[in-house]
Design goal:
about 450 residues, alpha+beta, two-stranded antiparallel ribbon, 13 helices, 16 strands
Length: about 450
């Protein structure tokens, strides 16, 4: 038999395998339903045409799909090898012309299918170790776009928690300057004009960094594009000095392919991390040079982890001891009480670096899945979970486990089209940035 006539077919009625034997009637050996090879599928049976209507049950309604019409749309672009109709119809196909652009073929199929049946979305995946592809149907009911009011409320709450975090930082610094800091000072926080200005500066810079991280999603929201409709910012309890857990990408429709996904979630995060590091060192001169108070403050600060700092800062400080880099006037661990802008940049390094982890549904998790697929993404998620447990950070692994078990996995409509070779370097850059953001003891 040729590759277009497999030795077994799947019955559309009972979903059981039936031998493809030309010497016998084309009927299912289990239920007796008429079946055929792909090149004859649902064609003329003598003078009688076999017509199959598939019912696709959704949460809201039942959709009737004429398999002949659907097959005709796909056959314009692909060679159909086999059709499996239960429980959801999908087609095993290959390209008529191996040199043709698979992305363009998918676009034409997607456009034709949109006219075929409202609510149906086309998915395309490559079969492992094969030149064949699987085309499947996904029902996607119309999703109501999130309201501007909801987004503005979340953004406002996030900004408020960051302002309060800045005020707490200011109070810690004031107590440390008088060498009176003995522990957590949330109950001793001073709310005055100076602390408010400090908090507003801190929040303004940090929220800007977070918006850079998700700038493409935010722009897509305001432009009202169909694929991505923005980010929801996540407030946090103000006692956590970072003041936020970052943001979650909210999209109405799945991205077309992995190349598009990488552009949406990768570039902004990498740019935001670079901006955070640059702002930190460019504003270090604005800090107060007070070695005694700096030691007191940094030893008790939630922001600095009670005596830890990102690895990249430690490496640059060590390099500065040898090279005397002019932009670095001193180490944050020994002499400098940070300016609010510098503190916000430090918080940006932590938050963006955390979001670049190759795990769960962070930016780094999306990047990992887009480049290396589901198995590598799941493996690295559990590697990160065990790494945090080993480091003694227990609550973060619980967050990752919850995300991995309960949230919808990131995927795209057309995973058969590979990412561009240059985009694979994004994973290496992401890993380096994430590692350099990891806090280490001073």
């Amino acid at each position: 038999m040729s590759q277009f006539e497999p030795d077994h077919l799947i019955c559309w009625n009972c979903n059981q395998k039936t031998p493809n034997d030309k010497e016998t009637d084309r009927k299912c050996v289990h239920c007796g339903a008429e079946i055929s090879t792909a090149d004859e599928l649902y064609g003329q049976k003598g003078e009688k045409k076999v017509k199959v209507i598939i019912q696709l049950n959704t949460k809201s309604k039942t959709i009737n799909i004429d398999l002949d019409d659907l097959k005709a749309i796909i056959e314009e672009e692909m060679n159909i090898i086999q059709v499996i109709t239960q429980p959801v119809p999908f087609f095993i196909v290959n390209q008529k012309d191996e040199t043709a652009d698979l992305d363009e073929i998918f676009d034409r199929l997607y456009e034709n299918l949109a006219d075929f049946q409202e609510g149906l979305i086309l998915g395309m995946n490559r079969i492992a170790k094969s030149s064949n592809l699987v085309i499947n149907l996904i029902y996607s009911p119309k999703i109501e776009s999130p309201s501007n009011k909801r987004n503005l409320i979340l953004l406002g709450l996030t900004f408020l928690t960051i302002v309060l975090s800045g005020i707490y930082n200011y109070s810690q610094i004031q107590l440390a300057s008088n060498i009176e800091l003995t522990g957590w000072i949330i109950l001793e926080t001073s709310f005055d004009i100076d602390s408010l200005i400090f908090g507003l500066q801190f929040a303004g810079v940090l929220i800007s960094i977070l918006m850079i991280k998700d700038y493409q999603s935010i722009l897509a929201y305001f432009r009202k594009t169909k694929s991505y409709i923005g980010s929801y910012f996540i407030p946090a309890l103000p006692m956590f000095e970072l003041g936020t857990l970052g943001s979650v990408i909210r999209h109405e429709k799945l991205p077309k392919n992995n190349k598009e996904l990488l552009k949406k979630v990768g570039y902004g995060a990498i740019i935001a991390w670079i901006v955070s590091v640059a702002v930190f060192f460019l504003t270090l001169d604005l800090g107060e040079n007070n070695p005694d108070a700096a030691v007191q403050y940094q030893g008790h600060s939630i922001m600095l982890g009670g005596g830890v700092e990102p690895l990249i800062l430690r490496l640059i400080e060590l390099g500065n001891d040898v090279l005397n880099i002019p932009i670095v006037t001193g180490t944050i661990s020994d002499t400098i009480i940070l300016h609010p802008i510098t503190m916000a940049a430090l918080a940006g390094i932590y938050i963006v670096g955390f979001n670049l982890l190759p795990a769960a549904y962070f930016n780094g998790g999306y990047i990992t899945r887009a480049i290396y697929g589901r198995k590598v993404h799941n493996l690295l998620t559990y590697v990160v979970i065990f790494a945090f447990i080993f480091a003694g950070l227990i609550y973060i692994p619980f967050i990752l486990l919850f995300m991995n078990r309960s949230l919808r996995a990131p995927f795209v409509l057309n995973s058969a089209t590979p990412v561009e070779p240059r985009q694979k370097y994004m994973f290496v850059i992401m890993m380096i940035m994430s590692i350099l953001s990891f806090p280490i003891p001073l």
